[in-house]
Amino acid sequence: MAEIEKVEYWRWTESNWKNPDIPDWRGSLITAGVDIGSTSTQAVVMADGVPYAYSNMRTGSNSPDSAIGAIDWAMKDTGLTLEDITYTIGTGYGRVNVPFSNKTVTEITCHAKGANYIYGPTIRTILDMGGQDCKAIHCDAKGAVTSFMMNDKCAAGTGRGMEVIANLLAVRVEDIGDMSFQIDEEPDPVSSTCVIFAKSEATKLMRTGWTKEKVLAAYCHAMALRVVRLLERNGMELDFAITGGIAKNVGVVRRIERIMGIQALKPAMDTQIAGALGAALLGKELVEKKRAKENQ
Amino acid sequence: MLAHYGYEDGSGHYYIRLDTAKCAECPEKGCISACPEQLFATELDDFDDEVVLIREAARNTLQASCASCKANGEMELCRSVCPADAIGFSW
């Protein structure tokens, strides 16, 4: 009997990166941020406030192990050890489970700080589309949060919802965005209230002859509508950007832009690391404040 | 900071808005004892200010939790004792 290949369509690509412009970290103030989300974990190491290395991987069943795994992967081939890191901040759902952290900070504060670094001081509205929740955040020119609203009642409108649809339609999650535009006409959205309803609706549509591309378009459309409602309730102010894993899905991003009639800023780095990046930056600020106080 | 705690589901959107800057200056924090459902609590925020928040376990059931106050047709008990007008409802 032929063996059936089991493909995990939902599995996105894990990654790590090292800054080629910083040949040696020695002599620098090293801070780190570890963002343990429900679905993914990121670790960012900064040297004097500049990203030096990061990793982005799936969160396992054990949060402390995920934190250690992420920081080890980020530090791989750098010569760094945990002892070289002056200050580490844990953030995300699992922030209390970072065994080597000096402090915990909410992911809302860290995402605003990280987005301020990635997109610059003009950023005012951030939509963080994570694995199991979605947050609309307002911040000032320094990246301090002025308002936030989140919805984690249901996986609809989150990365997990997208993974469910990827598995259902046997489409790799990273291909969904592009495929959702291979249609003649934008279809009506599927249910945006519940991911289980959306899944059964998608199954029904496939049975009636809809192509995978059309179903994906309907799902991306529904997800965009859901998060736009969140953005509108929290208030929209430009500049606007999207962080989190869904920011990599053009099918959702372009539909949000179309519905709202605005353009999201284009990121210069991986949008999934915004929280960990913000945590590492906050760590640097805390160390500098402490040192300034000691020198007074 | 304006913190919106709550959710949206098929029946509507249910958010309680708290102005945490006003809460930080409030010595009484009367909303905590006024709420019959014990939705409110205090916590040190990221900058070590003591602020009021909605308990995490209660955030996704606000429609049911606030139903008795809403049914009276009068101002909710938490809002009625707040001296700073720091609490708002989306429904």
Question: What report would you give on this structure?
Answer:
The complex is a heterodimer of chains A (296) and B (91). Chain A has helices at 63-75, 107-119, 159-169, 176-179, 195-207, 212-234, 250-260, 274-295, and strands at residues 15-18, 30-36, 40-47, 50-58, 87-91, 103-104, 125-129, 134-139, 145-151, 240-243. Chain A contains eight helices and ten strands. The termini of chain A are far apart. In chain A, the strands form two sheets. In chain A, strands 1-4-3-2-5-6 form a six-stranded mixed sheet. The longest helix of chain A is centred in the C-terminal third of the chain and has 23 residues, at 212-234. In chain A, helix 2 crosses helix 8 (274-295), helix 3 (159-169) runs parallel beside helix 5 and helix 6 packs across helix 7 (250-260). With 296 residues, chain A is α/β, with parallel strands linked by helices. Chain B has 91 residues and is an alpha+beta fold. Chain B has a single domain, classed as Alpha-Beta Plaits (2-Layer Sandwich), CATH 3.30.70. Chain B is built from five helices and five strands; from the N terminus they run ββααββαααβ. The radius of gyration of chain B is 13 Å and the shape is globular. The mean pLDDT of chain B is 93. Strand 9 of chain A pairs parallel with strand 1 of chain B, so a sheet runs across the interface.
What's the layout of helices and strands?
The complex is a heterodimer of chains A (296) and B (91).
Chain A: E1 15-18, E2 30-36, E3 40-47, E4 50-58, H1 63-75, E5 87-91, E6 103-104, H2 107-119, E7 125-129, E8 134-139, E9 145-151, H3 159-169, H4 176-179, H5 195-207, H6 212-234, E10 240-243, H7 250-260, H8 274-295
Chain B: E1 2-9, E2 12-19, H1 20-25, H2 31-34, E3 40-44, E4 50-54, H3 62-65, H4 67-71, H5 77-81, E5 87-89
Antiparallel strand pairs in B: 1-2, 2-5, 3-4
